# Entry
Amino acid sequence: MDKCSFCDKTRENVEILISGVSGFICNECVERAHEIIDENTVNEGKFDLDSIKGYKPKEIKDFLDQYVIGQNSAKKILSVAVYNHYKRLGQVDENDDVEIEKSNIILVGETGTGKTLLAKTIAKLLEVPFTIVDATILTEAGYVGEDVESLLSRLLQAADYNVELAEKGIVFIDEIDKIARKSDNPSITRDVSGEGVQQGLLKLLEGSVVNVPPKGGRKHPDQKMIAVNTKDILFIAGGAFDGIEKKISQRLNTQVVGFDKKSKENIDRNNFLQYIAPQDLKSFGLIPEIIGRLPVLTFLNHLDKEALRTILTEPKNSIIKQYTKLLQMDGIELTFENDALDYIVEKAIEFKVGARGLRSICETIMTEAMYNLPSENTKEFNVTLEYTKARLELLNAKKLRVA
# Structure
């Protein structure tokens, strides 16, 4: 009787039984063998630095301009930092007395202002492995949650386990403000998701060889570890730091005491973030050691009505262009009235959700149409102000009934 030479299952008990020269193997054993190979194989490859060094800071910013509206100051600082980071990788003279250190980046700005999009777009341009990790899921080793090494596990996966590529990649740590120290006196309680995580991140940010479990250490404790050197990995941290404007304001008011009245008047009180400094991050709850390992500090401006209106329609990946393309695939031409677009922007400002909220508002408006239109013999669909208001009011009415 034909049966698998590995698990002894007969042809009737498996989907496929593959015959060989002197035996058989079933599809289940083939799949298991593939998993074993993946777990124990580390791909080796060459990193093409020349193609990355071809992008100068102005070219990086020009590329960012196609996807991110406004935020010119942040884009310039980010472009220079990324350019210098990958330029330092080309420093091959070991006898050179000047050793260029890594400059990790921290972005401060309200939700929906483009922190994650900036990091994603740069990684897209440079074609390097990129991963996003939410800092809120990280805890100290030994506690429920994920170790800080999971950042590198995800980067390895993004690089298809090519260690050399992963060691030149970019890691975006989102919501880093959520791991701020919860108390000024850390001895009162064990802060396993706050200062403890910050301490765990230090060796990764500075640069060290870390043994990384490719599939996550806590779920697969017996797997083969992979050594990853973080010396050349660029870390970009982002956070809203809600309430930090008050700390900036307090510091500025202290500074101007004893000076003339004009120095106070020069402060733009509508945008305190532009005056952000490392000591403000310390006041918020980041430990000095981690602030020192994130030396490039920049801010993202609050998005006003004009910026949100541009974001809605102008970038290459704008939301309106995406919906237009989706319906175009069904042979339907989609158009929006200007009044409807203005109303969407007004609602985004009212809800205080930034650019990210534009999509959820548009999704609410378009869901019913995208459900019905593909089944109807329709060639054009125009979104009017009346239609937009009706869809949003209907949603609000449903929410009120549920409440």
In short: The longest helix spans residues 354-372. The two ends are 65 Å apart (CA to CA). Residues 186-190, 399-403 have pLDDT under 50 and may be disordered.
